[in-house]
Amino acid sequence: MFDLDNRSVLVTGGSKGIGRGIATVFARAGANVAVAARSSADLDACVADLDSLGSGKVIGVVTDVSDRRACDELAAAALEAFGGLDVVCANAGIFPDAPLATMTPEQLTEIFAVNVNGTFFAVQACLDALIASGSGRVILTSSITGPITGYPGWSHYGATKSAQLGFMRTAAIELAPHKITVNAILPGNIMSEGMIENGDEYIASMAKSIPAGALGTPEDIGHLAAFLATKEAGYITGQAIAVDGGQVLPESLDAIVT
Ligand code: NAP
């Protein structure tokens, strides 16, 4: 029923973590997949792994999503390789810790450049191709942090993840006449390379706050992305969907059943 064969997908931040989980699910389903990130070594390793998973083509394109021209070149490379583009997953993001009292203007500028401008640039660069697709899909990786929850040190990060939802709602209206849907996935705490950098103590405390009892996997996010990318999901647009093992539900730690 959910056919992703012959769909061509671009995943920013696809070399690691959640983006790689998304790319893995699409590659396994037979889609053509373009992964983008800044490190060419990580991209090469990722492409080698993804290549063996399905029947579609896989390419890696070195890209900094905070650079509009680089995003244009990324979209052009995917179009040239696949002959079209149906799905853009604007996933690349950073989450450095910066308490409000000591946050510098440079830290604020950097996180908005990657997480917000990078979302706009990736989508804008793919727009003509998504229109030509006739069933284009924009899938954003937002977060529960910002749209639903908060965490010390991440006021700037939470603001960028909420900004993605503001973008989504108007983009969904503007693009609806072209049969393009725009939706956001709000991951809870997912075991990615970036998550591992937060340290064991953080990970253990997060696991305790999740009713499902464990952090999620990158492919947990990929499965929802794959569904949103299908033609069958064409009537779902402008939605923010949490994939978090129930993390936002408990009123306190005592509410969790062990
Ligand atoms: P990660 O493991 O650190 O991976 C980040 C990916 O993005 C890497 O491929 C990285 O490659 C790429 N990237 C970073 N900056 C980039 C830039 N300027 N241009 C292009 N690519 C860039 O992170 P993650 O945990 O998977 O997070 C991915 C997304 O999920 C982010 O948007 C994050 O906000 C969101 N999220 C994560 C969690 C979680 O629990 N992990 C929860 C909620 C939301 P390079 O460094 O080589 O560029």
TrEMBL record:
<dbReference type="Pfam" id="PF13561">
    <property type="entry name" value="adh_short_C2"/>
</dbReference>
<comment type="similarity">
    <text>Belongs to the short-chain dehydrogenases/reductases (SDR) family.</text>
</comment>
<protein>
    <submittedName>
        <fullName>3-ketoacyl-ACP reductase</fullName>
    </submittedName>
</protein>
<keyword id="KW-0521">NADP</keyword>
<dbReference type="InterPro" id="IPR002347">
    <property type="entry name" value="SDR_fam"/>
</dbReference>
<keyword id="KW-0560">Oxidoreductase</keyword>
<dbReference type="GO" id="GO:0016491">
    <property type="term" value="F:oxidoreductase activity"/>
</dbReference>
<dbReference type="InterPro" id="IPR057326">
    <property type="entry name" value="KR_dom"/>
</dbReference>
<feature type="domain" description="Ketoreductase">
    <location>
        <begin position="7"/>
        <end position="188"/>
    </location>
</feature>
<dbReference type="InterPro" id="IPR052178">
    <property type="entry name" value="Sec_Metab_Biosynth_SDR"/>
</dbReference>
<dbReference type="InterPro" id="IPR036291">
    <property type="entry name" value="NAD(P)-bd_dom_sf"/>
</dbReference>
